[in-house]
Specification:
Layout (H helix, E strand, L loop, with lengths): L1 E12 L2 E13 L4 E5 L6 H8 L7 E6 L2 E2 L5 H11 E5 L10 H13 L3 H14 L15 H13 L5 E5 L7 H18 L2 E6 L2 H4 L4 E6 L2 E3 L1
Helix pairs in contact: 3-4, 3-5, 4-5, 5-6
C-alpha cells in the first residue's frame, strides 16, 4: 500500500549539511501495525513526515497505492493527505478556539465542503467510539491529556484513512492514559484493517506491534 524507496533527507545551513535519512527503504502492507524506534535525533519524526507527505525527501520516492506522492501537485497531495492519511502527534495540535466536536469535524468539512449535518453526525459517531460523547462542547483547555489525544485520534480517523501515522502518541501522557491510547489505536487497526505506523521511544509498546524497525544513523533496519 505504501512504499518508500531510497529515501534521503539532508538539511543544510549555509555551508554545513546534516544528512538525517540515508537511503531508507520501507514497505507497509494494508492492515499492518508497525513501529519505528530509535534514539532521539535519529530522524524518526523526519521519516514519518516524509512518509506522510508532509516533507519532501532530498532524494527518493514515496508511493501510496502506486502513486508517487511527491510527483503530485501540492493541491493533489494535500487532498490525498486529507482523505487517505491520518496523523496523531505527541502534542495533539488541537485548535484552541474550537470545541471538541468542531476539531473532529473540521477535516471532513475541508474534504467535502458541504453537508454539515452529515459531517456533524459522523463526528458524533467518531467521538462516541473514542469515549468522548460527554465532551462535545468542551474546549481543549478543559480536557485532560488523555482526552486531548482521544480527540486527536477521532480527528485523524474522521475521513476513514487507509493509514495512520502516530508520532510519539503516548509521549506526553502517564502510563495509564498511554496504555489506553495504544489499546484504542490497536482496536481501530484491527476493526478497520487500517495500517498504522507508530514512532516511539518505548520498546515495550513497539514490541506489541506486528513488526519493529530500528532507525539508527539514518538507516532503517528490521
Amino acid at each position: 500500500m505504501l512504499e518508500a524507496k531510497n529515501i534521503h533527507k539532508v538539511y543544510s545551513n549555509g555551508t554545513k549539511t546534516l544528512p538525517v535519512l540515508k537511503g531508507v527503504n520501507l514497505s507497509i502492507e494494508q492492515g499492518k501495525f508497525i513501529a519505528i524506534v530509535g534514539p532521539s535525533g535519529a530522524g524518526k519524526s523526519t521519516l514519518l513526515h516524509v512518509l506522510g507527505g508532509l516533507d519532501h525527501p532530498s532524494e527518493g520516492s514515496v508511493f501510496f497505492t502506486g502513486r508517487d506522492i511527491y510527483k503530485l501537485k501540492d493541491n493533489a497531495r494535500c487532498a490525498l493527505r486529507n482523505k487517505n492519511i491520518g496523523f496523531v502527534f505527541q502534542f495533539y495540535h488541537l485548535l484552541a478556539e474550537f470545541t471538541v466536536l468542531e476539531n473532529v469535524a473540521l477535516p471532513k468539512l475541508i474534504a467535502q465542503g458541504n453537508g454539515p449535518k452529515a459531517i456533524i453526525e459522523d463526528a458524533l459517531k467518531m467521538l462516541g467510539k473514542v469515549g468522548l460523547s460527554e465532551r462535545l462542547g468542551h474546549f481543549p483547555s478543559q480536557l485532560s491529556g488523555g482526552e486531548k489525544q482521544r480527540v486527536a485520534i477521532a480527528r485523524a480517523l474522521i475521513n476513514a484513512p487507509e493509514i495512520l501515522f502516530c508520532d510519539e502518541p503516548t509521549g506526553n501522557l502517564d502510563s495509564a492514559s498511554g496504555g489506553e491510547i495504544i489499546n484504542l489505536i490497536r482496536s481501530i487497526n484491527k476493526e478497520n484493517r487500517m495500517s498504522v505506523v507508530l514512532v516511539t521511544h518505548n520498546t515495550e509498546l513497539a514490541n506489541s506491534t506486528d513488526k519493529v524497525y530500528h532507525l539508527k544513523d539514518g538507516v532503517l533496519v528490521n
